[in-house]
Amino acid sequence: MAGDWAAIAAAATISVSAVATAWAEKEIGTSAIGAMAEKEGLFAKGLILTVIPETIIIFGLVVALQIVGMGA
Amino acid sequence: MLFPNEMSRVTVVSPRNYMEDTIKALYEAGVLHLKDYVPMEGDHYPIGTPLPNAEKISELLLVLNSIKTQLVLGETVKKKTDLSLDSAQKFLNDMQERVNNTNSEIRDTEADIKENACRKEVLDFLVQTKIKKFEMLRGYGSLEVMTGYVPDVRLLKERMSTIDSEMFTSELKVKKGFPAVLFVKKKDVERAKNALQFSNFCRIETDLEWKKATVAEEYDAFNSRMKALEKKLKALKGELENITKERGGTLLGLEDSLTAEIRKSEVPLKFAVSNHSFMIQGWVPRGRQDMLEKRLRGITENLYLSIEEVGEDEAAPVLLENKGPLKPFEFFLRLYSLPSYKEIDPTFILFMTYPIIFGIMLGDIGYGLVLFAGFAFIKYKMKKMGSVASVLMLSSLVSIVFGFIYGEFFGFETIGSFELHPLIMRAAGINAMLPISLIIGIVHLNIGITIAFINELRARKFKHALGKASWFVVETGGILYLLETFFKIPTGVEPMMSLAILLTGVVLLTIGESYRGLIEIPALASNVLSYARIAALGLAGVQLAVIINSMAGGMFHAGGFMIVGGVALLFVGHAVNTLLSLMGCFLQSLRLHYVEMFSKFYHGDGEPYKPFGSG
């Protein structure tokens, strides 16, 4: 029983984190592409800045795994 | 290696009649990075004006560029040219005339060909309707001739049944429909036009200026004219190619020499001038200052030349100095920003830690081998990507080493019959790698704090140095406390003691860095946690490989046709996983350096060293 709830909790964690990350990266990515249209050399900086929100989903993954570990 | 190239500040003051010689000498030496003279409030001296030939050279460059856009210079080999301004002008004007004329003739010929092609359509129509002579179509007193295509002959006949007319239609259907010729009385023209519109009649104008009497003759004339036009076009294009072959090399060489001349002519805009003298300021690398001094003194002895050490807080240009295997890692610094002049050059840190963090995250023998081979190929094929390729080749090698530690070969634990003995089982769960990742984080960040400490000492900012050193105290206290209370690991230090150490550290930090330092304490915790991505990415990669393998295994067991599917799945799946892992590990490892570690010590914003010269 605990295992079922743990699975749902883990799923919820990952989903919400993923939505948050995707939303953040979408905004940054759009601006990065806009900046690149004016100056091609900004591609590398733009890419790095776009990937900064990855932290959110990685923390989500860690928490989800801990939850699953707890529920087992 | 540890610091950017050492620079010396140079100041030159000289009489104005030596300005051109000085410019020439500086250009040939190619080592002085000029400082733009910007007159401020209350400054007496204005900037210089460009040398007299600047305008003419600009005009020549304009002409040259307009010629360049009209030619296809792809494969042309540059030929070194040394023409005087006058002969360059003659060459360019002559070439421009020839190219422009040839091009306008080409355009005219192409327009003629198009017009001719239109006439062909009409001629085809006439052949289809079997009209042999042009006089059949014109010169009638009371009749109007209408020619065109109609999609349905019966409909046309129906619509025209009420109008008195002579109709000739062909049974031969072409793309546009059935060709039809109608002779209608002039008074019935309006009714006829209505009827034609209802039958979807598509009109063709046949009353053009024909030179011959019969259609057949005209057709021959058309063919021969077309051939002549096409021959002419080919000749003109060949002529253009000839011009390119003959003069293209000289053109490109001339472009180079003119660009050099314009740079020399416009550089007085960076000097300060008075009525009789001018002043130049700049920086030169310490190792080249003697050569520069000799050249300048060779022009005249009436020269004030001062070469001195770069002052504190002076923004001298930055020339990175890294040899051998460290040099490709400068690419990461150029991507971000160059270190400021007084800072430590972090390239050697990147060289040491980037491949390791990359390798720990990727950690697969098979993927490492594939990436190594791939980037070796890229390095061989594309010289431009040489430094990135070298960085990733080194990183792939480290991944192979960690692949042995994790016991992963494309997700399998055996290479053929050779069994791998993993030291750390990654696929089991995140708990194996998480503490290791956090420890890597703490070590990495402390390397950053140490560098910050050294930088502050060198800049003689002792209070800030104290602030940086106090981080170590804070960390010691914090870690001891956490180990005792949360992780229940006995450390031999009582919790009260560790709290006291922590507090001492905080106090020192406030002294050293005031309130901004305090705000950074939670930032330190978040930075360390950020390193958990090392465990997370590694886990994601290996889990994906294991899933691909087990699915393929299932397909192999099913037998028969599924074996082919299994092989395809293995191939595609591991290819995708390799690319995903490559992108992820590359970006995340770089981000850990740029954001987490650099925020501890890096000032950046260094101006790249761009000396005045042909470089």
First and last CA, distance of chain A: 10 Å
Q: Estimate the strand proportion of chain B.
A: 5-15%
Low-confidence stretches of chain A: none
CATH fold-level name of chain A: F1FO ATP Synthase
Count of helical regions of chain B:
16
Rg of chain B over CA atoms, rounded to whole Å, is 40 Å
Order of helices and strands of chain B: EHEHHEHEEHEHEEHEHHHHEEHHHHH
Q: What CATH architecture of chain A would you give?
A: Up-down Bundle
Number of strands of chain A: 0
Through-space gap between termini of chain B: 23 Å
Total E-strand runs of chain B: 11
Give a description of the structure:
Chain A has helices spanning 2-38, 43-51, 54-71. With 72 residues, chain A is mainly α. Chain B is α+β, with helices and mostly antiparallel strands and 615 residues long. Chain B has four domains: 1-48 and 271-319, Alpha-Beta Plaits (2-Layer Sandwich); 68-113 and 225-257, no CATH class; 114-219, Alpha-Beta Plaits, CATH 3.30.70.2750; 324-601, no CATH class. Chain B is 59% helix and 9% strand. Chain B is built from 16 helices and eleven strands. The mean pLDDT of chain B is 86.
Topology record:
The complex is a heterodimer of chains A (72) and B (615).
Chain A: H1 2-38, H2 43-51, H3 54-71
Helix pairs in contact in A: 1-2, 1-3
Chain B: E1 7-15, H1 19-29, E2 33-34, H2 54-70, H3 85-128, E3 143-150, H4 153-159, E4 165-169, E5 178-185, H5 189-198, E6 202-203, H6 215-266, E7 272-273, E8 277-285, H7 289-299, E9 304-309, H8 330-336, H9 347-362, H10 365-381, H11 386-406, E10 414-415, E11 418-419, H12 434-458, H13 462-485, H14 495-530, H15 533-558, H16 562-601
Antiparallel strand pairs in B: 1-8, 1-9, 2-8, 3-5, 3-6, 4-5, 7-8, 10-11
Helix pairs in contact in B: 1-7, 2-3, 2-6, 3-6, 9-11, 9-15, 9-16, 10-11, 12-13, 12-14, 12-16, 13-14, 15-16
